[in-house]
Amino acid sequence: MKQLNVDLGERSYPIYIGSVLKQDGLLAKHIKAKQVCVVSNTTVAPLYLKLIRNSLPDHSIITINLPDGEEHKDLTTLNTIFDTLLTNRQNRTTTLVALGGGVVGDMTGFAAACYQRGVPFVQVPTTLLSQVDSSVGGKTGVNHAQGKNMIGAFYQPQAVLADTDVLLTLPERELSAGIAEIIKYGLISDAEFFAWLEDNMDALLACDKQALGHAIHRSCEIKAEVVAQDEREGGIRAILNLGHTFGHAIETAMGYGVWLHGEAVAAGMLMAADLSRRMGMLDQSVVDRTQALLLKAKLPVVTPAEITDKQYLSLMSVDKKVLDGKIRLVLLKGLGEAMVTSEVPKVLLHKTIQVSRLPAEQARR
Amino acid sequence: MKQLNVDLGERSYPIYIGSVLKQDGLLAKHIKAKQVCVVSNTTVAPLYLKLIRNSLPDHSIITINLPDGEEHKDLTTLNTIFDTLLTNRQNRTTTLVALGGGVVGDMTGFAAACYQRGVPFVQVPTTLLSQVDSSVGGKTGVNHAQGKNMIGAFYQPQAVLADTDVLLTLPERELSAGIAEIIKYGLISDAEFFAWLEDNMDALLACDKQALGHAIHRSCEIKAEVVAQDEREGGIRAILNLGHTFGHAIETAMGYGVWLHGEAVAAGMLMAADLSRRMGMLDQSVVDRTQALLLKAKLPVVTPAEITDKQYLSLMSVDKKVLDGKIRLVLLKGLGEAMVTSEVPKVLLHKTIQVSRLPAEQARR
Q1: What is the pTM of this model?
Q2: Domain named 3-dehydroquinate synthase N-terminal: which ranges (chains A, B) (predicted)?
Q3: 10 Å Cβ neighbour count for A225?
Q4: What residues in A contact B151, CB-CB < 8 Å?
Q5: B interface mutation test: which of A151, A154, A230, A324 has the most B CBs within 10 A?
Q6: Tell me: the pLDDT tens digits for A334-363?
């Protein structure tokens, strides 16, 4: 088992990576009172709820199973958590445990932030994507029909337990979606790690435990460093959103849940790389390596033909990074080096959107 | 104009009391960017929105009018704020201005806490109750069918502008409801102020500007001191809830909006005083003075006959102060001295509930 720390003063917390759910007393250590509410979904609960129960023999546990999928990440579903907590007379000492992927983690964290103005919570992410991204850093929230994650809070967990054993039951498509965010860390801040991913992609796709352990650890390490510098995203933290402004537009335009978040981010990162190259900041070779690595990870690199330029611009202009009406984008100025800019020539942005719809072998030349 | 400060480190902010909306540039000083969204309601906006517009000539202003009343303080109404913000492409630099009473302030503050994970907001409370209580201290939130203020956040405003001129248009019943919270400050921490209220109640009810200014200033001063010691209500802050556990039960049982919050708190404070006396902590004379002052302020001291003991206990057991299944109550150990306890003999609690239903002249003997 590996451990690292997210350093946020009095809000600091540990991340554990490995066969963590089998570690005696580890989860219990991070729960202060007797009352626990495990929030999970209809897919994950049948597989792993029992493990949680076993590791908390002395606690009083209630459970909530949310419907599975991004399309349920909204205020209505959130309210069902409050309903259950109140019906079961849960109070301010109750700890919420998020057992599931990013949707469960984001909603549980936001519910914890809001229930009686704040109760503690623990993240037990069960997808690769949530282990390397959403469970770390305290971003919680729900979607609005007009934009992803538009309603939420910065609210840090007591601990993150990333169990690598549970990834064995993950559908292939979700494994790839998680790898998209791992590739992101290479692109924004570690060229060596990017090269390691090029060499070890087959092992990751085969769920090799050593390879996954390393990739998750390095990803969380990079994220924890960035978050520790800028908890509430006043500056540097925005680089973690490489590909996300394009990606959110794709997710929203297609309807939540049609494209997985990681899939949309994959296509979006390639768009960001392409735009960086058109703006003269990035070598074509990095764009090519990015596309090749995404394809190797079985991720989409071509965007849906039905999303118009106008839709992209409209959806991108509600992005949380927008300032004074200007779209701000995370771009690359080298492999492992990201930057945020609102100085994007419109004509190049349109070109990037247009070529993103072409088959991989024709595009980005 | 008077000014005082809520001392919360980097979250500190000023409270201005007096003819503040006429002060040139005062509101603008606390708004950092150009975009402003004024959230008000259908009663207050026609009266005072123009004043706000006049004081922000260089800003781009959108407005949202919520339906008026506690019964609309819920997630559904909250979502209409998000709808409007997103439709109007408001971003993270937008400042929300809450122009209205406690319902508008609580919902606007919570919307500000959650929109894009947090935007700045300013409180412009237009009722006496919100000026002396809800606008100060950062408690924001909405109600749930199963309990008041069960969903919310601690989120501090940039400034509070309590304009005493606007109180002239306040209905008598709402003026009295505000006075209930003012009496609370005397009861929990300032016997001298309580005596001043006994002497000056007629002036307050006549909206004498000097008297109101003093009462608001002293109330905010007491609240600011308590909040500065305990922002997130880990301890001492709970004393601000004198009468609120009983009061919330009355409000919830009767249906939100039937009893005004201040009215329910008035009856609840008398119950707390009565229970304190039965537990041997408080002189009968303080109970009598409390009842007399509440009656002088035209506040209810008799609780609705239709609320059963069982309902009280059930509603009080979802109170946010409940710990390990025990109801915790704020009680008085003297005039101007409050305490929190979970050691309440059930038989005395029942007696207090029973006598609270009797006409004032029969009860509490």
Answers
A1: 0.91
A2: 64-176
A3: 14
A4: 82, 114-115
A5: A151
A6: 999 999 999 999 999 999 999 999 987 765
